[in-house]
Amino acid sequence: MDDRYEMFNGGLSRKIEVGELKVPFREIPISTGETLKLYDTSGPQNIAPGVGLPKRRASWISKRKQRGDTNFSQLHYARKGMITEEMQFVAIREDVTPEFVRDEIAAGRAVIPSSICHPEIEPMIIGRNFLVKVNANIGNSRVSSSIEEEVEKLRWSVQWGADTVMDLSTGDDLTETREQILRNSPVPIGTVPIYEALELVKGKVEDLNIDIFLEILERQAKQGVSYFTIHAGVLLHHVPMTAKRVTGIVSRGGSIMAKWCLHHHKENFLYTDFDKICELMKRYDVCFSLGDGLRPGCIADANDEAQFGELIALGELTKIAWKHDVQVMIEGPGHVPMHLIKENMDMQLEHCHEAPFYTLGPLITDISPGYDHISSAIGAAMIGSFGCAMLCYVTPKEHLGLPNREDVKQGLICYKIAAHAADLAKGHKGAQDRDNLLSEARFEFRWEDQFNLALDPGIARDYHDETLPNDASKTAHFCSMCGPRFCSMQISQEVREYAAAHALKESEVLQAGMAEKSSEFSKSGGEVYVPNK
Amino acid sequence: MDDRYEMFNGGLSRKIEVGELKVPFREIPISTGETLKLYDTSGPQNIAPGVGLPKRRASWISKRKQRGDTNFSQLHYARKGMITEEMQFVAIREDVTPEFVRDEIAAGRAVIPSSICHPEIEPMIIGRNFLVKVNANIGNSRVSSSIEEEVEKLRWSVQWGADTVMDLSTGDDLTETREQILRNSPVPIGTVPIYEALELVKGKVEDLNIDIFLEILERQAKQGVSYFTIHAGVLLHHVPMTAKRVTGIVSRGGSIMAKWCLHHHKENFLYTDFDKICELMKRYDVCFSLGDGLRPGCIADANDEAQFGELIALGELTKIAWKHDVQVMIEGPGHVPMHLIKENMDMQLEHCHEAPFYTLGPLITDISPGYDHISSAIGAAMIGSFGCAMLCYVTPKEHLGLPNREDVKQGLICYKIAAHAADLAKGHKGAQDRDNLLSEARFEFRWEDQFNLALDPGIARDYHDETLPNDASKTAHFCSMCGPRFCSMQISQEVREYAAAHALKESEVLQAGMAEKSSEFSKSGGEVYVPNK
Q: How many CB atoms are closer than 10 A to CB A500?
């Protein structure tokens, strides 16, 4: 074992850093001598939570402050033609030019959520011309969970590939929980500020107002939250559209704003005072994640007038945010049957002017509680392939309870599959390299390479060892599925060797009477059964 | 608890039988007084393996023998305009007319695999205008597993919804294993007879010939196998097309036939002697499952000339089989990235004249060993929505080892999700009823109804109880995800009640100055927090 490599998630790899900006990658060794360089979200390792991660962006940001900038948004810089360190960083990470990154941001097609108060971030980009990203939700509720658990879930999430993490806490110690998460997070953190605002007014929805909301935004922005889910598109006239639905309003933020609108019989203050929110967010470069408060909560409610009415409102708000040079992404559903998924993506691109789409699933059926990570990964893979830029994971506990550590991992693996499959479907440059290397290893019975290249090397190894545990079997030219006599890969290799040795071409094979070839094959090919080497 | 119901897979339900033919369904009780009638594959319960299942088709078949029939295929009867008991049975099962069933079979668009030597079958139909079906593979190999284990896997498979089961045994005791499986199976059993043929020639591929193959077919047909995977489309000139592939030939049957072709430098005897095979199969009504011996084994090899070359050959063979009135379905890949899936379905419909398609996955990436049930369920759901009639499950052990009991269950749940999602996407009549009932139960916090309506009631209940174990919480009007204060469903219900009470219309809400409505809401709505009832 090459001692430059270590065990990580059950497989051999090492963290490497590229260039002056020290852009992190994970390198997988392959027994052929090749290596594979993978995008890596895991961040600096082995740092005590009390210490917090190094502040790699501190000098970049202080330089901007020194020259007197007042709008710190990446969109603002991009539109001025500037290439920030964050753009350079993601350009290396994504293997594109910094100019391309800048232009995608300037066009509003991509965002780099990177609060100037979260200098620990390793910058990442969300946009449909980049790798598809995955978000993991963590957060306590009044019923369950502690700060330590949430920080540990954060670490665990980035270890398994979360590109961003949302802290959805609604319990006690909101500020302290968030602070601990931020100081230990190498990825951007998103929140839904209305939750904390509601705690401030002791749960009385009707007491919410724009001043209280702005107070909470400022508090969270100063801590370093990089994107806010804001349900500014839930409008008064949308609310009755939900009364006929099977599951009404399923977004917590959406239902709070709907109740506020009905109570006061006024338009949503997040909508009417949207400019004030933009003014605040650009001072910290907090990115909008315009919430889909009216997303469908079941198959029956998918793509209805409430949902699309809100989407159109989000498109209007996108233009307002862009006037302030504030970055925007748009949240999407939810529960949608497969045949209605593409319409969601098409409508979003059209009405929201190509701002990045960020969806929760969608789940493609309602009948799979306990397996909604899987139902939703199907929808997520599809919408990713259609252009969705970030996929919010769903865990096995969706609709049932709060996810534990294993649930978080299961949700992430499902969503890494979905995101990667979407990259493949979009023909994203280099995305197929890992598939090809793993498949070559599979064909050549290089088991250790297969494990190391897998999304979850530890599980791949464990499952293999369950049937064939001894070391010899890891070099065997067959596996337990078929046994030695029926190994198609083995026979296939014989066919290939024969074809190569004889420069066999289709046209030749078609010639009749090539008895010589047949006897040659008999001599060279040997038995189907090849003893364990 | 209504004592007509019992616990089954962790949820309350009961088996019911409909009509003279005693067509089985599963009935789920709902606390509102409604019931839901579901398609049920579980077969007669609590029968000792040594006894075997009741032979419900025995009288139907003996009647046909008495009148001197020689071609027993459902296609033969359908083309003569006859409606068999099997067709009547599936008509009730699928909630369509017997005439529709007959016409779909006569057109070759659907098959009822129902060997006359397997009278224990509860007939089922495979075709894209019916519910999407799921196959589970079981079977021992030389490395692992026993007969008892395989029979138990069969029972476990139908308990979790397998519509057909393939016995892929390649180890010892092939005949006895198959006999035990058949006598205990309420679902059609498929096999890949070339495996047993190869055992007969002691693994020497070159010694295979049509006579040996027909001998094995006869043996298996007499036992009651209902469909044979036969790799008759692997032609000599296809073989060199696979030499450039990343993973060559990954089908065991395909690689055996390729080796045979190369060795003898002759055309595949399954192709050249296809008529003889048809003659045999119609005497038992064994259905062809024309094997995709050249299916791609990795993303890089998808949709290549070898794969589609074979598909075109399978189309030719379909026409030959139909000349004999033998039923046909066509097997498909494998590993295919999402954007290339639809082409598979389109090509299959075009070249194979709408014979039912039966695919393995496809997996939409190669990087997920240990989670290939999930990767492949994504591809399966998609191809199902495009018209694939039956989905062959993949378990978490794919590529790594032999599935155990839990793996079989995980594979089946994933594929029941995929098949159901495909039914929804196709707008299949009644498919959404279960989703709607479950979602209504979710909206109204009827937890027990949610569990009973779930694909896996036991897991749904366990996950719920992990966070909120006490009985009171099962009637709580919130769940552990949001806690009481943030429950969107609760708020939503308030909105709905308010809307209903006041016959609220969109136009009214839009009128300004309706202060009266706002104060009414304050009076009627109460707090967001509703104490546990």
A: 11
Q: CA A225: distance to chain centroid?
A: 17
Could you read off the pLDDT of A20-38 as tens digits, one per residue? Answer: 999 999 999 999 999 999 9
Across the interface, do B374 and A370 touch by the CB < 8 Å criterion?
no
| Tens of pLDDT, residues A144-169 | 567 788 889 999 999 999 999 999 98
B473 touching chain A per CB within 8 A: no
The candidate with the shortest Cα–Cα distance to B415, out of B372, B438, B381, B447, is: B381
Identify whether A362 is preceded by a cis peptide bond (ω within 30 of 0).
yes
3-state secondary structure B336-361: CCHHHHHHHHHHHHHHCCCCCEEEEC
* Tokens representing residue B269 in the block: 């005897």
CB atoms closer than 10 angstroms to residue B50: 8
Start-to-end C-alpha separation, chain A: 21
- Asked if the C-beta of A531 comes within 8 angstroms of chain B's C-beta atoms, the answer is no
Copy the structure tokens of residue B232.
């008759």
* pTM of the predicted protein model: 0.93
Distance, CA of A286 to CA of B69 (rounded, Å): 78
- As a whole number of angstroms, the distance between CA B30 and CA B25 comes to 16
Band (pLDDT 50/70/90 cuts) for residue A515 is very low
DSSP conformational letter for A279: H
Name the stretches of chain B with pLDDT < 70: 1, 141-145, 469-487, 499-533
Q: What's the CA gap between B394 and B407, in Å, rounded?
A: 9
Query: Tell me: the pLDDT tens digits for B136-195?
Result: 999 876 555 677 888 899 999 999 999 999 999 877 788 998 999 999 999 999 999 999
Q: Does A141 touch chain B (CB under 8 A)?
A: yes
Partners of A441 on chain B (C-beta within 8 Å) are none
Q: Are B179 and B147 in contact (CB under 8 A)?
A: no
Say which residues have a Cβ less than 8 Å from residue B427's Cβ, sequence separation at least 6: A339
**Nearest residue to A396 via CA among B263, B522, B462:** B462
> A490 with B177: CB under 8 angstroms?
no
Give the residue on A whose Cα is nearest the Cα of B238: A506
User: Measured between CB atoms, does A142 come within 8 Å of chain B?
Assistant: yes
What is the C-alpha separation between A378 and A381, in angstroms, rounded?
5
Residue among A328, A334, A55 at smallest CA distance from A182: A55
- Is A94 in contact with A125 (CB distance < 8 Å)? yes
Q: Which of A206, A444, A431 is nearest to B248 (CA)?
A: A444
In chain B, residues with a C-beta closer than 8 Å to the C-beta of A426 are 339
How many angstroms separate the CA atoms of A121 and A113, rounded?
Answer: 9
- How far apart (Å, rounded) are the C-alpha atoms in residues B406 and B148? 16
**What mean pLDDT comes out for the span A236-253?**
92
CA torsion, ordered A237, A238, A244, A247, to nearest 10 deg: -150
Write the ipTM: 0.93
Q: CB of B406 within 8 A of CB of A492?
A: no
B-chain CB neighbours of A435 within 8 Å are 298-300, 365-367
Beta strand residue intervals within B338-423, DSSP E = 357-360, 390-392
Residue in A170, A455, A489 nearest the CB of B482: A170
Angstrom distances, CA of residue A462 to CA of A112, A413, A417, B401: 38, 16, 19, 10
Contact present, A213 and A169 (Cβ < 8 Å): no
Tell whether B166 is within 8 A of chain A (Cβ).
Answer: no
**In sequence order, which residues have a C-beta less than 8 Å from that of residue B103 and are 6 or more positions away?**
B78
Least CB–CB distance from B365: residue in A370, A421, A462: A421
By CA distance, what is A434's nearest residue in B? B367
